[in-house]
Amino acid sequence: MEQLSTIIQGCINKQPRCQKLLYEQYYGYAFKIVFRYIYRYENAADVVNDGFVKVFTRFDKFSCEDTEDQEKVLMGWIKRIMVNTAIDELRRKNMIPEIGGIPEEVWDVPDVGQSAEQKLYYKELIILVKELPPSYQVVFNMYVIDGFSHQEIADKLNISIGTSKSNLAKARAYLQKKLNTDIPEIDVCSS
């Protein structure tokens, strides 16, 4: 892959070749972020594509002077856009995550940043999180996995901070109970 700073500059200048390179490199990463919120493969793929449209139209707002951390900053920026795009989609659908099985091809989307062990843990976590009630799923994803504060969650979902905290506590309790049936020593997402 070309040097990342060259690709970023090309995306800022709206060069299709650079946009394609960035899209291909980070599609798997973006898909896994969106899939935590949108469970149907086809719909998640649509949300990822919508997210990349936002990435490319807002690239002039991306800034990272330190080339050493450029990829980390870029990935964080992409993550934030993908999470917000997924939340917008849930809000548009009245926050009812879609019900259905997780197709096996979802796990085949390449993400260069994960080892085989990480992929296994990720798959197990997503399957457990999918069992949560919809309101718990969204708050758990936003707080634990994506790092939103309770205030940010409350603002984005139009709920109170107390509701956000309550949903998170109930999600943690449920996941802890599920994990304790197999491994009694694990403490889920303690803060």
From TrEMBL:
Example of a GO biological process term: DNA-templated transcription initiation
All copies of domain RNA polymerase sigma factor 70 region 4 type, residue ranges: 128-174
Keyword Transport: no
One GO molecular-function entry: sigma factor activity
Domain of life: Bacteria
Family matches, as CDD domains: Sigma70_r4
Domain annotation RNA polymerase sigma-70 region: ranges: 22-94
Alphabetized UniProt keyword annotations: Sigma factor, Transcription, Transcription regulation
Any Pfam family: Sigma70_r4_2
Keyword RNA-binding: no
Similarity field: Belongs to the sigma-70 factor family. ECF subfamily.
Name of this protein: Sigma-70 family RNA polymerase sigma factor
Source organism of this protein record: Chitinophaga pinensis
